[in-house]
Amino acid sequence: MADWDWQVFCKDTIEGEVIPRCFGGGGDITYLDWMLSAWGWTLSVSLLSLAVAIVFGSLMGILRTTPNRGLVFLGNAWTELFRNIPLLVQIVLWYHVVPAFIPALRGVPSFLLVVAALGLFTSARISEQVRAGIQSLPRGQRMAGLAMGFTLPQTYRFILLPMAFRIIIPPLTSESMNIVKNSSVAFAVSIAELTLFAMQAQEETARGIEIYLAVTGLYFISAFAINRIMHFIEGRVSVPGLIAAGGK
Amino acid sequence: MPMIEIKNVGKWYGDFNVLADCTTQVEKGEVIVVCGPSGSGKSTLIKCVNGLEPFQKGEILVNGTSVGAPGTNLSRLRSHVGMVFQHFELFPHMSITENLTIGQVKVLGRGKEEARDKGLKLLDRVGLKAHAHKFPGQLSGGQQQRVAIARALAMDPICMLFDEPTSALDPEMINEVLDVMVQLAKEGMTMMCVTHEMGFARKVANRVIFMDHGRIVEDADKDEFFGTPRSDRAQQFLAKILNH
Questions:
Q1: Looking at beta carbons, which residues of chain A come within 8 Å of B74?
Q2: How many CB atoms neighbour CB B42 within 10 A?
Q3: What is the pLDDT of residues B174-188, one digit of tens each?
Q4: Whose CA is closest to B198, among B150, B147, B243, B136?
Q5: A102 vs A105, A109, A209, CA distance in Å?
Q6: Statement: the pTM of the whole predicted model exceeds 0.95
Q7: For residues A99 and A166, is the Cβ–Cβ distance under 8 A?
Q8: Residue A244: its pLDDT value, please?
Q9: Can you tell me the distance from the alpha carbon of B66 to that of B74, in angstroms, rounded to the nearest whole number?
Q10: Has the ipTM of the complex gone over 0.85?
């Protein structure tokens, strides 16, 4: 491809001049600087959302498997609420609509609102996986825990969850990778992440192919890194004597 | 005071009467075998004894504590009632040693060293000391069930409940489990066993309870149950399982 121009990344974002070492200085930034900063935003949104999603998703998934009807209803309602509305709509809701009803949210940075939106959207999906993981365990496991004198929370903590989480590592891996990719919708509320960078930079430079290829690469690297980390964890927690985790 | 006292217990799933007016008791040091066709309610009855299954009518007392009463601390009661399940239910993500110690440490509050010593001593007793470091998935069914018995004993139970402990085992592994149970019975452990192993019943049971359609049809001394006339239903059942 003779007419590719990868030097676009070395250009100053104001003057459009190529800077020798590709990194700006003294207040000037290059497109490369901007892209790396955007990558940082993408990773920040993704990782924080993932933390929110795992905490709320696990909690709601657990509630849905308890003997208490009220708690089951709460978990079900939560899950259905957050998985039946499109992600993009949820982000806009958090940004425009929710603060209209809850004044305390008006001063909150849009970054955090996006983390809430993406995190809670994903929590519904993780809740479903956690529920499935717990319910896939033999019923006798819960009974064995209780029969030994464990309280219900202890039974979850020591017996059910360690196995349930091992079983759901594969779908959790997909979900964690999804969150990196889904973070791209944060452009809708002007978070300076990779997709927003790509759209703006291609307008300014007219080098859309190079810019989108670079951004594609960064998304791929980020998602794939999560995949490898999860694979490593899966190997570390595998149980001797079980072919697949939970294979019984 | 009997160790286990079951008084007029009734249980329903909707309209279906799983347990109907069941009354019996197990004295301290007694071994009771509960048998009956599948669906007769015997597993349900034994699970009511430690409150794993709720019941709607009647009363069950374990060592004087009412299982169904609202104020009862069920976890505390269960911690000294050992239970062995049909499918072993060892905790698959824990080594055999951890399986034997976790209840002692987390429920009884014993120190790790003490729990370990106790667990290994019991593991030795069921003939599996060499397997302490393995995981449940690496043991045969019979070995897993022996570990499960050791795990229950590690909690120093005042009585033991066995819910069809040999029905999920290959025939050649049944005896190794029954041997452990016989030994336990001879040492004076109070035991309530749901099982079809009539050889075991003959050898160590004090009484045999026969259930059908959620009722206790027969509750007799061992010799009486296997010898003198009894209910038609129990006779038919025995004829079917003893002929082979």
A1: 146
A2: 28
A3: 999 999 999 999 999
A4: B243
A5: 6, 14, 42
A6: no
A7: no
A8: 52
A9: 10
A10: yes
The domain segmentation of chain A, as residue ranges, is 22-134+147-246
Per-residue pLDDT, averaged over A127-142, amounts to 97
Chain A partners within 8 Å of B85 (Cβ) = 140, 143-144, 147
Name the amino acid, one letter, at B203.
K
Hey, are the CB atoms on B103 and A150 less than 8 Å from each other? yes
> What percent of chain A shows pLDDT beyond 70?
97
Pairing of strands B57-62, B31-35: unpaired
Domain A22-134+147-246: give its CATH code: 1.10.3720.10
The answer to whether the CB of B155 falls within 8 A of the CB of B80 is: yes
Sign of CA dihedral A96, A98, A103, A109: negative
Is the pLDDT at B218 greater than 80? The verdict is: yes
What whole-number distance in Å separates Cα of residue B47 and Cα of residue B54? 8
Using CB atoms, pick whichever of B50, B87, B151 lies closest to residue A138: B87
Tens digit of pLDDT for each residue in B142-157?
999 999 999 999 999 9
Produce one character per residue of B70-91: b if its CB has 16 or more CB atoms within 10 Å, e if not: eeeebbebbbbbbbbbbbbbbb
**B197: exposed, middle or buried (Cβ count in 10 Å: 0-12, 13-18, 19+):** buried
Contact A48, A117 (CB under 8 A): no
CA-angle at A44, arms to A31 and A185, nearest 5°: 75
